[in-house]
Amino acid sequence: MSAPHDSPAHHKHPVNSTTPADPPVAGEATAAHPPPGKPDPTLESNASQRRLSTAGPAASAELASLKVKLKAALRQFPDFPAPGILFEDILPIFADPELFEALIHALELHITQTFTEKPDVVVGLDARGFLFGPTLALRLGAAFVPVRKRGKLPGPCETAEYMKEYGADFFQMQEGAVKPGQKVLIVDDIIATGGSAAAAGTLVEKLGGKVTEYIFILELDFLKGRDKLNAPVYTLLSGQEEKLGGN
C-alpha cells in the first residue's frame, strides 16, 4: 500500500518579455491570492506532501531507535495462547502516552519512506487493529475503516470467510466503506496464520480498493502467514521465527 519520492513541479517564467503582467483586478482570486475564506491550495498541497518527504539516513536511524524502545516495552508470556507460542504483549505501549506516540511515529516513518503518496484508507482488523489504526489514519490524513466479525456492523455488508483452528469464521466490511481505486493499508497487531488479514484483503478488493501494504507490529514467522497475502507485508518489530521447543 513502493516507489521513490517525486519532487514538486517547477514553474517556468517567460524570459525577454517586455510586456508586464496585468495586475489582478480587485477582488479577483489568483493562485497567489486565493479568495477570502478559502485556503491557499498551494499551501494545502505542500502540507500534505511534507509528511511524505521524511526519508534518508536520519529517518532510518530514528526508526531503528524507536523500534528498540518499543521492543523493550513488550511483556513476554511463554506458551500462550497455545504451547510453543511466545506471546508478546503490546498493551504496555498503549498504557504509556510516550510509547504510544513512538509507535505511531515509527509507523508513519516507515510509510513516508516507502510510499510517494499517502494512503486513502487505513483498514483495522477486529479487534487490536482498532487500538492504533484510527490514530495512524488521523496522523496520515486518511480515513479509517474497521473490519469486524460477522453480525457486528449495521446495513449492507460484504463478507469474507477465513479458517481458524477449530473451523471457519467470517469478517465483514460495510458496503461503500472503501471506494473503487482507493489505496488501502491494512493494519493489525500481529500476523500468525494470515487468514484474518487475507480475508480483510479480500473485502477491500470486493469493494474495489487496492491493498498497497499489510502492516503488523509483530509476526509469528514460523507460521508463514505472509505467504497468504496479496500485497507487501511489513512487520515493525522482530517476530518469533521458531516455535518454542523447536517443534
From TrEMBL:
Its EC number is 2.4.2.7. It catalyses: AMP + diphosphate = 5-phospho-alpha-D-ribose 1-diphosphate + adenine. Its main location: cytoplasm. The keyword Transmembrane does not apply. It is an enzyme of class 2 (transferase). InterPro entries: Ade_phspho_trans (IPR005764), PRTase-like (IPR029057), PRTase_dom (IPR000836), UPRTase/APRTase (IPR050054). One of its GO terms (biological process) is AMP salvage. Residues 1-56 are annotated as: Disordered. This is adenine phosphoribosyltransferase. It comes from Didymella pomorum. The lineage of its organism: Eukaryota, Fungi, Dikarya, Ascomycota, Pezizomycotina.
